[in-house]
Write a structure and sequence with these properties.
mainly alpha, three-stranded antiparallel sheet, two-stranded antiparallel sheet, Integrase_catalytic, Integrase-like_cat_sf, DNA recombination, Site-specific integrase
């Protein structure tokens, strides 16, 4: 829930919370998405507040943003949290430093020109995040526009003018969203690693292996179990980190993912992973302090403190440092992408009578990865496999055409 921090109120911000509930409050929606939407709307409200305005009040009254406002707001959404605070501080100084009796001809004259502000503030490094923020704000403005128009007499000329202005603002906001590369079949951002690389890592991670870069005993066995859970399930780093001892079922070979930014689920694991879990529990976890075992987290340091996400990242950093043949982009999420590659290859290898339909394949993948049934994420993660298959078919076709050409000669 987004709170209104103006004047120390601390009350729920009514319209943003209504919007998030109506548009994103469905059971199939990720709670994490709702949080991000509200955080983004909070940024927009912060921008307006610095300029002495109430964003929700303006939108509800039909005082929609000007094109100058759109540009300023879009620039603000491009900044990091630190950058937004610095921008707000400079903007507030600029806004309050004007002479009290200065005659204002245009409303824009009373607002700080973002072009005059320092540009040393670091922008958000991920264009996809910027695009998402801008689109969420545009959708919120569009929603407020629809609410406002619904309360007016549609025969009134004012309603028509308001609609044109609001639609122009929404369109301009969406134009400011950076284009994402996800639409390209050749985009490299969701690359996994090949099967031989996964096998190489698995051998290096085996407890007791000569090439294992970690301290023998507790650390090696724990890290191997982390690796195996990621490899078997394609789970996210945070999902594995939040696992508790009773979430892994040795007898049924299942991993229950209770904490997820999308949908909790239960997924199968390999017998090899089940054995790694059994060894870790018997030889090490059961010997942790009583307090650590009471908290129940499966992955801790040697003193029983819950392992951090950064510590899991360091496992993969250490592997990359140890073996130059491991790609530089190897990270926990790379294993998730690799899982999706292997899933696609497994489906393709099935005989036609056992192969699921395209719709069923999408549903199966989405369930195992924690996406909603209609989510398009599965298609994005399958792009690498589809690209490989298309290249193989094209190469075969090119060879066949070359042979046919030789015969004709």
């Amino acid at each position: 829930m987004l709170l209104d921090r103006r004047e120390g109120c601390g009350c729920p911000a009514f319209w943003p919370n209504v919007y998030a509930t109506v548009e994103y409050g469905k059971a199939s929606r990720s709670p994490n998405t709702v949080v991000k939407v509200l955080r983004t709307l909070g940024m927009a409200r912060m921008w307006a507040g610095v300029l002495g305005r109430d964003l929700d009040h303006d939108l509800r009254q039909g005082n929609f943003l000007s094109i100058e406002d759109v540009e300023s707001l879009a620039d603000f959404l491009c900044l990091t949290a630190v950058g937004q605070v610095e921008w707000a501080a400079r903007a507030a100084r600029t806004h309050t430093s004007r002479p009290e009796r200065q005659r204002v001809v245009r409303l824009e004259d009373a607002r700080p020109d973002p072009r005059r502000l320092e540009r040393s503030v670091p922008p958000v490094t991920n264009p996809a995040e910027i695009a998402t923020r801008v689109r969420w704000v545009a959708s919120y403005v569009e929603w407020q526009l629809g609410m406002r128009l619904g309360s007016l007499d549609r025969q009134q000329r004012a309603s028509e003018n308001l609609k044109k202005l609001g639609e122009a603002v929404v369109a301009r906001l969406r134009q400011r969203a950076p284009r994402s590369s996800h639409g390209s079949d050749d985009e490299p951002t969701l690359e996994g690693v090949d099967r031989d690389v996964l096998q190489r890592i698995d051998q290096a991670m085996l407890p007791g292996a000569k090439q294992n870069p970690f301290t023998p005993g507790f650390v090696q066995v724990r890290n191997y179990l982390i690796w195996r859970l990621l490899l078997d399930t394609g789970a996210r780093r945070a999902e594995v980190r939040e696992a508790k001892a009773d979430h892994v079922k040795y007898s049924t070979r299942r991993f229950e993912i209770h904490t997820s930014k999308t949908i909790p689920r239960t997924v199968p694991i390999n017998p090899k992973t089940a054995d790694a879990f059994d060894r870790f529990m018997e030889d090490f976890w059961s010997k942790l302090s009583q307090n650590a075992r009471r908290r129940g987290f499966l992955f801790t340091d040697g003193r029983g403190a819950h392992l951090s996400l950064r510590a899991i990242n360091r496992i993969f950093e250490r592997l990359r440092e140890k073996d130059s043949n491991i790609p530089d982009f190897l990270a926990p999420h790379t294993v998730r992408r690799s899982w999706n590659d292997q899933f696609s290859a497994t489906v393709d290898s099935l005989p036609p009578e056992k192969r699921p339909s395209v719709t069923e394949e999408v549903r199966i993948r989405n369930r195992l990865q924690g996406w909603r049934g209609e989510s398009s994420m599965g298609a994005r993660y399958a792009k690498r496999h589809i690209r490989r298959k298309s290249d193989e078919i094209a190469e075969t076709l090119a060879n066949d055409l070359a042979l046919d050409s030789g015969k004709n000669d």
